[in-house]
Amino acid sequence: METQVFRDPDEKVLGSAILLRLLRYWRRLAENGRLPARADIAPSDMIPLLPWLVLVDVTGPESFRYRLVGTGIVEHVGFDATGMDVGEAYQGGDWPTIAKDYFYVARERKPCLTVFSTAFDPDNPTPLNYRRLLLPLAGDGENVDMFLGAIQFSD
Question: How many other β-carbons are positioned within 10 Å of the β-carbon of residue 13?
Answer without folding.
Answer: 12
